[in-house]
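Batch job 17 of 40 flagged for manual review because the log was empty.
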Amino acid sequence: MHFPTSLSDIDFVMLVSAAAVILNIIGYMMKTMIPLRIVAMTTNCLFILWSSLAAVYPTLILNIILFPINALRFWQMKRLIRQVNEAANGDLSLDWLKPFTTKRHFDAGTTLFNKGDPATELHFIMSGRFRVVERGIDIGAGGIIGELGLLEPGKARTATIECVETGETLAVSYDHVMQLYFQNPTFGFYFLQLSTARLFHTIKSLEEENAALRAANARLGSSTPA
């Protein structure tokens, strides 16, 4: 084997191999997936070029196999990011969800479920208007009701829901929700975002109620004669 002793001994093949080795080391040091996949694909290309010129066929075959794998993972990560962004913007199409649902019709005045009832499914509202009785909040088309029961440790309803305007929902069992959560990142992120927003809204309402009670108690205390 001939080792270079001067710059004139360094040829194109050696430069390519050196660049491939350096990028390979950089790839192992990276922490974020998208840049890592880009570096990995570039490294694969350099190793393919070097092994072709140097007739190192095991390395050539290995990197020919690795390149499409890295390209596939890169595409999957980009798709995942796009789906998460769509979910974050509330752009959730229910067309793919319909095979997992059952259409339900509710007349005005109907109680869907009471607080404390066993929780087994959630509802996507297609039309009409439904009220969270304990909070006096109305939810219309495009909203979801019954999702917090899935997160409640005892799998019980956390509020009473009443139909105040005749409408239809798409009911999804919690078993299907769990499957969809892991299979479709758009749905998973949307469900997480929705549930978190509901919990924060509940916490905010409780804080406002407590503040109002403290203010009322303070006024009562100041008006009480010494």
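Reviewer: the log was empty due to a logging misconfiguration, but the result itself is present. The chain is about 55% helix and 15% strand. Unflagging and moving on to job 18.
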